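Dear support,

I submitted the protein below through the web form. The confirmation email said the job was done, but the results page showed an empty box. After a refresh the structure appeared. I'm attaching both so you can tell me whether what I see now is the final result or a partial one.
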Amino acid sequence: MENKKIAKQMVDFNKAAFESGYNTIFMLQEQSAKALDNMLQQNPWLPAQTKSFMNEWMNIYKKVINNFKEAVDQNYSRMEEYIQNYSRMEEYIASEGETPKTKTKK
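What the results page shows now:
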């Protein structure tokens, strides 16, 4: 039971650290997008094709970072589910009066 608690704390800590880092990167990206948009609007000498290319590049970046976040969130959910299922298995084994068998060297 203690192992489950430690594993859950480790997953929660790593998830919180990832969320913090992701939010920092997301805010930085939003500020960069605003600065780029202002620069593009204030420079009439830039061709329209260059402006559309830069806007498309920022949109692709946003999409990729959101897809990455979704993948990480899914994997954290899977890990939490695994820990919970392992705990249920330990409880079931304990209720049956059995102990998990381990291999011993002879």
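Response: this is the final, complete result; the empty box was a page-load delay. The first helix runs from residue 2 to 42.
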